[in-house]
């Protein structure tokens, strides 16, 4: 054996060791395939062919820099195809323009930034406002924080969980830069009355953004099913809708890192671009918030869209909606549980109708059965819930999940509701978050059961019950410390 052969064998062994260590780390994660994780991941259940194609396309373009499409024209070619597909699906016309982003949050940020700049340039608005239902995604609050925009949150109906167009009309004024609606809202899975609200915004010369990040690649296909669910129109064909966001890494089932934000025309899109010639380096034009970015996610999205195709997505939608309906019917038959609103697609929000049954405890018990559902604290008079994101991979699994959910509900009743310590809640109400020291934060988190070196407890229900009772400003002060505790200094293991 030559020295080169020995070196190659050593390198191969080292690679295997590194990948084995990575697999060991992944063992603690929720599963991303199989339909048992009902949040965060989107699995079409199509087998290895689609995944292998996506990974190969990703790898083929991973080293291509999307910063400069004049140097890498493949980036523009792929993006044009992807944007055109999204526009065709979502009511776009010949003037529709779009941008591929890294995800729903970046798409939302670009839409809000565009609205701010458009309001300033066309109407002279220097202190902009954004009207949004309380059910709008947190990404809009992030955008408001980053871009200095005042939010005007509106309540939603406690039965339909959608905003009242009359409340939107009353809130519109000369400072309004953007009105936000959802199709559907993440928390409850319902579609806002987009046509009515978009018309009100248009009458005042205000932009209207539809957050279809989670529903944009599912609802158009769900509409085409023989027993199509009822839902209002929501896309760019609706008069007054000026922008729309849709995530490809959700129900288009592409790898993470791909979303599209569509605008009514290129002139509107231009307000979200950034250009800089005020330095001695190369002229900079950023179409997204990122500069350098891999073209891997874009290429993977392009490949998966072509591979699955229209007929494939229609079949995936049928499987998804069928499963969501079966779950909705089955949940209604479990004593003490109810699905909120009238969700037409794949998202279900489950609340308790029995004071002795705490859905936070149900979520903990269900996780012990190998199913993950996402707890959602109550807010502004809306009840605490657990959220289910149903994907095509869950097709056929509804009976198994419903049986596990019924067992979890029985266990949760025996355990009783999670109750926040009244004394701690009373003390928290007196705390000024602005003056909280790191030591104070650590002490509070310790009392809340989150002080063990950043480790999260096995049962999250008591923690969530406390979080729900904290003043919002204090919760937002403490949450970064909870997550920050997961990232700690330790000896590097990269040598």
TrEMBL record:
<dbReference type="GO" id="GO:0008483">
    <property type="term" value="F:transaminase activity"/>
</dbReference>
<dbReference type="InterPro" id="IPR050477">
    <property type="entry name" value="GrpII_AminoAcid_Decarb"/>
</dbReference>
<protein>
    <submittedName>
        <fullName>Aminotransferase class V-fold PLP-dependent enzyme</fullName>
    </submittedName>
</protein>
<dbReference type="InterPro" id="IPR015422">
    <property type="entry name" value="PyrdxlP-dep_Trfase_small"/>
</dbReference>
<dbReference type="InterPro" id="IPR015424">
    <property type="entry name" value="PyrdxlP-dep_Trfase"/>
</dbReference>
<keyword id="KW-0663">Pyridoxal phosphate</keyword>
<comment type="similarity">
    <text>Belongs to the group II decarboxylase family. Sphingosine-1-phosphate lyase subfamily.</text>
</comment>
<dbReference type="InterPro" id="IPR015421">
    <property type="entry name" value="PyrdxlP-dep_Trfase_major"/>
</dbReference>
<keyword id="KW-0032">Aminotransferase</keyword>
<dbReference type="GO" id="GO:0019752">
    <property type="term" value="P:carboxylic acid metabolic process"/>
</dbReference>
<dbReference type="Pfam" id="PF00282">
    <property type="entry name" value="Pyridoxal_deC"/>
</dbReference>
<feature type="modified residue" description="N6-(pyridoxal phosphate)lysine">
    <location>
        <position position="250"/>
    </location>
</feature>
<keyword id="KW-0456">Lyase</keyword>
<dbReference type="InterPro" id="IPR002129">
    <property type="entry name" value="PyrdxlP-dep_de-COase"/>
</dbReference>
<keyword id="KW-0808">Transferase</keyword>
<dbReference type="GO" id="GO:0030170">
    <property type="term" value="F:pyridoxal phosphate binding"/>
</dbReference>
<dbReference type="GO" id="GO:0004058">
    <property type="term" value="F:aromatic-L-amino-acid decarboxylase activity"/>
</dbReference>
